[in-house]
Amino acid sequence: MPEIVHTKAELRARVASWKSAGQTVALVPTMGALHAGHLALVKQAGDHADRVVVSIFVNPAQFAPHEDFDRYPRTLDTDSAALSAERVDLIYAPAVEEMYPEGFITRVAPQGGPASGLESDARPHFFGGVTTVVSKLFGQVRPDVAIFGEKDWQQLQVVRRMSRDLDIDVEVVPGPTVREHDGLALSSRNRYLSPEDRAAAPALHRILTESAALIGHGAPIGVVMADAREAITKAGFTVDYVEARHALTLDPIASTHDGPIRLLVAARIGGTRLIDNVPVPRGQD
């Protein structure tokens, strides 16, 4: 079982001993409720550094008052058991008071660039909460490498930009999305799906993949995305957004000549909000 620490002081002492020995450190930030997707990121972290730290912290700063912070699963014992089968050196599981002590007033507030639109329109508070906690984790752990899943594609690009803009010396490495056999992206929130909603949920990835193939073969982006929205709605979802964006800058895109394209979607089925994204293949037309 990996060692679990709950305070910055304990964390820094362990990391300092590794650094003094010339060892490199990889961080996998999580909110717990770990699944195979998280464990794939942990395995990837072990390929990039001598030591692996997994943080488990349900970050209140990225939840709006009406969202699911209180019911978000907290499963530290189960998570620790799952990580015991992986090469993990330390689990950092701070309390809210440790991360945001009394009197805490400073926030990171990304504006523009990859933080524009999409999740920012649907959840205006979100990236401020993410970048604030990630910048704190980077400062506390001092990792050489941090692994972020591609399922949260916009988040990945926002964290990359934050690290560059704030001169944080960490390599942000993407980890491929892990999916169920029917294409549904693994997510801690999938456990909220009713059996009926779970059966319908794979339509999200299927429609997105079909749309990406059409665009890759030269179909007009605007037409394809309008059809995708209609198809996702007919599959039982309420769509927050489904858009084609430049894969790295997240700028709106009108043509396949504008750069690499990523299709991104967020939609609700039942009481569960799902996100996904796929690349548009190039050179097929």
From TrEMBL:
One of its GO terms (molecular function) is pantoate-beta-alanine ligase activity. Its EC number is 6.3.2.1. Coiled coil: none annotated. The active site is at H38. Keywords: ATP-binding, Cytoplasm, Ligase, Nucleotide-binding, Pantothenate biosynthesis. Pathway: Cofactor biosynthesis; (R)-pantothenate biosynthesis; (R)-pantothenate from (R)-pantoate and beta-alanine: step 1/1. Signal peptide: none annotated. Gene3D superfamilies: HUPs, Pantoate-beta-alanine ligase, C-terminal domain. It catalyses: (R)-pantoate + beta-alanine + ATP = (R)-pantothenate + AMP + diphosphate + H(+). InterPro entries: Cyt_trans-like (IPR004821), Pantoate_ligase (IPR003721), Pantoate_ligase_C (IPR042176), Rossmann-like_a/b/a_fold (IPR014729). ATP binds at residues 31-38, 149-152, 178, 186-189. Transmembrane segments: none annotated. Beta-alanine binds at Q62. It is found in: Cytoplasm. (R)-pantoate binds at Q62, Q155. Belongs to the pantothenate synthetase family. Catalyzes the condensation of pantoate with beta-alanine in an ATP-dependent reaction via a pantoyl-adenylate intermediate. Homodimer. The reaction proceeds by a bi uni uni bi ping pong mechanism. This is Pantothenate synthetase. It comes from Flaviflagellibacter deserti. The gene is panC.
